[in-house]
From TrEMBL:
Catalyzes the reversible isomerization of glucose-6-phosphate to fructose-6-phosphate. Belongs to the GPI family. Its main location: cytoplasm. This is Glucose-6-phosphate isomerase.
Length: 527
């Protein structure tokens, strides 16, 4: 059994802390030395991706210290315990099994006589069969007509991941003739969200997936009622248009009002649930079950890499360790995720929940306060759009923000134009290459307003093309990075008590049970 200790009690961490400012990245990345680094500091990921960390503040000395930290913190042993079914989520006393939804990495995990791998595969099959029947016209609307679009109703983990993955593959599926149905998403309890989505679909030919692990989320239940109301008003029977994805113990699971229910369980956290029915149902309907299976395969292959003890061959663990060095030793407050791919436009938003809800904690897994900083603020936008927005601060602001670039050699649609001797795709890729060097090396100018200090670290994940398998590998990479960082900080990364208080107070406002400031705000907002 691995031992769980606070980061600041580890001898290897004290050694690492002595290496603050050890690498001058502006110098290291200059000239031929820089060229050598870019060739050397790269490690393969799954699905043909590669993690290049040449522009991070590392050298052999820092990497050696990180390897010792990985060993002392028993990162691989902890990952093994996690996928073999240990109760890693100490706050809620639950196992953490999202890896098992993609592949059996270790021992069989059996709960109350149910093999969990078999359970997850059976639910995937249920989603696949349902999708195939919809595509074949075996499941239709009341008039026997085919459904042409699908709308997911969910929020948080029941929205962000599936939405990001759908947007990521919409063009790919169209270019590869696997696009089956258009998908839309309703998440916010703002009535303008549901109303606008409903106005954009043909109700009579739309399926609605109510996705809520708990089956109790106010926003989702309200939006479900909103949609049912619209269906009834249009003379349609809601139970012929709706299915549910939920846990077997949730109130939704008992309802007869759905075409089918696809189940998940308490061992897959909402923000890790895109690989369960939460993502599986909508992605199988939109692109076909085979495409969803390819996402799972990419994720599984990345998970397998994450079991490697050698940090230089384990991109997920290496990324996590470098991130902790940046956060705790260098003292950087945030991390930007910058995909040079329009298809990944919602991927940073998904990672925001995944990372900040997992590691935005001040107490360790035993409920004791920690004396060091934990999860950074995560934000991001696709490049090059971000360049024309917040990059000014990234280049010349007073904070240094580590950057995680993602780029692909080929576009998904392959539709392009050659202007002034380069294609749009080449312009996109030229920008990311330029940014890495600009951030790292900077440029001296006597006019300080035009001076770039450089020394701003970044990494880049490079792929051939954003395919379903590459997307699965990317997803797993960041999930595993977050997991390893949680291990290093000695956190429970798998609960989210910090979201409760606001929900409780909102209920009080709606019940008019308020006083003090809450009452005045309620009056100001006309509630
Ligand atoms: O899927 P649900 O049970 O409806 O939960 C939806 C979301 O709401 C909660 O408040 C949590 O903050 C999220 O982690 C979760 O993903």
């Amino acid at each position: 059994m691995a031992t769980w200790k606070n980061l600041d009690t580890l001898a290897s961490y004290s050694k690492l802390a002595e290496l603050k400012g050890h690498v001058d990245i502006a110098d290291a990345m200059a000239g031929e030395k820089g060229a050598e680094r870019v060739k050397k500091y790269s490690t393969p990921m799954a699905a043909g991706l590669a993690y290049n960390y040449a522009a991070k503040q590392i050298d052999e000395t820092v990497l050696d210290a990180l390897a010792k930290l990985a060993d002392e913190a028993e990162l691989i042993e902890k990952f093994q315990e996690l996928y073999n079914g240990a109760v890693i989520n100490t706050g809620e006393k639950r196992m953490v099994l999202h890896h098992l939804a993609r592949k059996q990495q270790g021992d069989a995990v059996v709960v109350d006589g149910v093999d969990k791998r078999e359970f997850y595969v059976a639910q995937q099959k249920k989603a696949a069969d349902f999708a195939n029947k919809v595509h074949a016209g075996e499941i239709t609307n009341e008039n026997g007509e085919k459904f042409t679009s699908v709308v997911q109703i969910g929020i948080g983990g029941s929205d962000l991941g599936p939405r990001a993955l759908y947007i990521a593959l919409e063009n790919w599926a169209k270019a590869n003739n696997t696009f089956k149905m258009e998908a839309k998403f309703i998440s916010n309890v703002d009535p303008d969200d549901a109303a606008a989505v409903l106005a954009s679909v043909d109700l009579a030919h739309s399926l609605f997936i109510v996705v809520s692990k708990s089956g109790t989320t106010l926003e989702t239940l309200t939006n479900e009622a909103f949609v049912k109301n619209a269906l009834v008003k249009a003379g349609l029977n809601p139970s012929k248009h709706m299915l549910a994805v939920t846990s077997e113990t949730s109130p939704l699971a008992k309802s007869e009002d759905y075409l089918t229910a696809i189940f998940m369980d308490d061992y897959i956290g909402g923000r890790y649930s895109s690989v369960s029915g939460v993502g599986g149902a909508i992605l199988s309907l939109a692109f076909g079950p085979e495409v969803f299976a390819q996402i799972l395969e990419g994720a599984a292959a990345e998970d397998t890499l994450a079991t490697n003890k050698n940090i230089l061959e384990n991109p997920d663990m290496l990324d996590a360790l470098i991130g902790v060095y940046e956060r705790n030793v260098q003292g950087y407050p945030a991390t930007a995720v910058l995909p040079y791919s329009q298809a990944l436009s919602r991927f940073p938003a998904h990672l925001q929940q995944c990372d900040m809800e997992s590691n935005g904690k001040s107490v360790n897994r035993f409920g004791e306060p920690v004396d060091y900083v934990t999860g950074p603020v995560i934000f991001g936008e696709p490049g090059t759009n971000g360049q024309h927005s917040f990059y000014q601060l990234l280049h010349q602001g007073t904070d240094i923000v580590p950057l995680q670039f993602i780029g692909f050699k080929k576009s998904q649609l392959g539709v392009d134009v050659d202007i002034e001797n380069s294609t749009s795709q080449q312009k996109l890729c030229a920008n990311v290459a330029a940014q890495i060097v600009a951030f790292a090396c900077g440029k001296k100018d006597e006019n300080l307003n035009k001076d770039f200090k450089g020394g701003r670290p970044s990494s880049i994940i490079i792929g051939e093309e954003l395919t379903p398998a590459a997307l699965g590998a990317l997803l797993a990479h960041f999930e595993n990075k977050i997991m390893f960082q949680g291990f290093l900080w000695n956190l429970n990364s798998f609960d989210q008590e910090g979201v409760q208080l606001g929900k409780v107070l909102a209920k009080r406002v709606l019940a008019h049970d308020t006083d003090g400031a809450l009452k005045v705000y309620s009056d100001l907002l006309d509630i």
